[in-house]
Amino acid sequence: MRLLLVEDHAELAEWVARSLRHAGFVLDVLNRGDHADQSLRTERYDLVILDLSLPGLDGLEVLRRLRNRESGPDKPAPTPVLVLTARGSTEERVHGLNLGADDYLPKPFELAELEARIKALLRRAGNQVPLVRLGRLEFDTTTRMAVDGQALALTPRELAVLEALLARVGRPVAREALFEKVFEFDADARVEAIEIYVSRLRKKLEGAGVAINTLRGLGYLLAEKPAA
């Protein structure tokens, strides 16, 4: 499952992102409403977690534009949207629900409740947890990564790298893009650190029937190994 978190409070975004990635979700994080609006025009997400008080564009306007694009015949099913807000008025909640929000979660909140609401919205939308298979590697947001049914022991950052590669199987992922996903909240990290995690993953994926290939100037590509 690929989620989008739009939250301008850096510490809260880091806290939520770390928890959801640990739960096995693939997550993009943005901190501006206008950036979220642009991303939602070109990318498809299984669910959006949307703050209301955002720079660039208010969260309610982001929601309104998303629903306008999704309306009409031959359009994809509406993207579930969970709104996070410190604004507590009933009038505003009703306004957001009328614009197309699927659920509201007031701040402060517990991570367990956030995760439970996300899973409930995904079930309601018919987005049952998909099983991704590549070679002998399997992945879903419940069992995480496994080879032949046996769970892989991956660190959170190794998991984040593998999730990003799985999201673009057969297509290269730039080293810089991997770095941004894995180290987005670590100001002291260097892009070269990605090579360390890729090397560790290659060792852990030996015998899984997949390969992480290095494409000079393009990045890394995850692909199934050809049958011997």
From TrEMBL:
Q: Which Pfam families match?
A: Response_reg, Trans_reg_C
The secretion signal range is: none
Modified-residue entries (4-aspartylphosphate), positions? 51
Please list the residue ranges the record marks as binding DNA: 129-224
The UniProt GO MF terms for this protein read: phosphorelay response regulator activity; transcription cis-regulatory region binding
* SUPFAM superfamilies reported in the protein's UniProt record: C-terminal effector domain of the bipartite response regulators (SSF46894), CheY-like (SSF52172)
Specify the OmpR/PhoB-type domain's residue ranges: 129-224
Q: By its UniProt entry, which SMART domains does this protein fall under?
A: REC, Trans_reg_C
Can you tell which superkingdom this protein's organism belongs to?
A: Bacteria
Protein name, as recorded: Winged helix family two component transcriptional regulator
What is the native source organism of this protein? Answer: Thauera aminoaromatica S2
